[in-house]
Amino acid sequence: MPANATGHFFVLCAPSGTGKSTLVHRLMEEFPNLRFSVSCTTREPRTGEVDGKDYHFITRNEFLAMRNTGKFVEWAEVHGNFYGTPMDEVHKKLNAGFDLLFDIDVQGARQIRQRMPHGCYVFLLPPSRQALLQRLANRGTDDAKTIEKRLENARKELEAAPDFNYLIVNDDLEIAYAQLRAVYLACKLTPEAAPGLVPSIMETWS
Ligand code: ADP
Ligand code: 5GP
């Protein structure tokens, strides 16, 4: 990632079906300076998903070619498909001063954190297995076998939650949104997020 980046980045992880997309869309609507890091994936588009907006939908061979030539900031295999964050996209948006939101899995978050330990790492939790099952079923995009796979994966992902900076339970959507919004705003106010701030104010003394 660029050393002179002006935007802040914000990594949000959640087991599939927790409500991440719902919350992220709302946050980006409220804060136009927050942009989504559009990942590449080899999975099939779901109904309503737009190529280039939700994901860059690419073939397995295209993905492997990008991976092998170091085009991803991070990548992972999730539920049998490949997902990766394209480096050029991150550079472009951060350098343009946009804040960037990464919707990635825990393996990807770990990889990014190794490079950028001071980012904002948020884990969104479902209130229970039953609630997650209900949401996945209601969403209607996955068959029973896929849902079972996602629930099993969710249990494993939850083990990583204590390593994150913030934990938000998406039980009541309004409360979860208020908390996510607060975390986003707070993350922009840390000393690491504004390294030049104090020196620039101190300069006014000289
Ligand atoms: P994700 O992006 O984490 O996979 P989605 O945002 O697609 O999850 O949400 C999965 C389903 O759960 C959607 O049908 C969504 O409307 C619903 N949902 C999201 N948040 C809540 C909530 N707090 N209570 C009940 N249903 C929710
Ligand atoms: P879905 O198929 O439901 O859109 O996403 C499945 C999982 O893959 C989610 O946990 C999502 O956050 C994760 N994911 C999406 N894009 C990326 C990416 O670029 N890298 C990684 N590591 N995970 C991703």
Number of domains: 1
In CATH terms, what is the architecture? 3-Layer(aba) Sandwich
Structural shape: globular
Class derived from helix and strand content = alpha/beta
Q: Which ligands, by name, code or SMILES, are bound?
A: adenosine-5'-diphosphate, guanosine-5'-monophosphate
Strand content: 15-25%
What is the strand tally?
A: 9
What name does the CATH topology carry?
Rossmann fold
Oligomer state of the chains in this structure: single chain
What is the succession of H and E elements? Answer: EHEEEHEEHEHEHHEHH
**How many helical stretches?**
8
Biggest beta-sheet profile: 5 strands, parallel
Q: What is the CATH superfamily label? A: P-loop containing nucleotide triphosphate hydrolases
How do the strands of the widest beta sheet line up side by side? 2-7-1-8-9
Helix content: 40-55%
- End-to-end Cα distance: 34 Å
What is the typical, i.e. mean, pLDDT?
93
Alpha-carbon Rg, integer: 18 Å
The low-confidence runs, each spanning 5 or more residues with pLDDT under 50, are: none
Quick one: CATH class? Answer: Alpha Beta
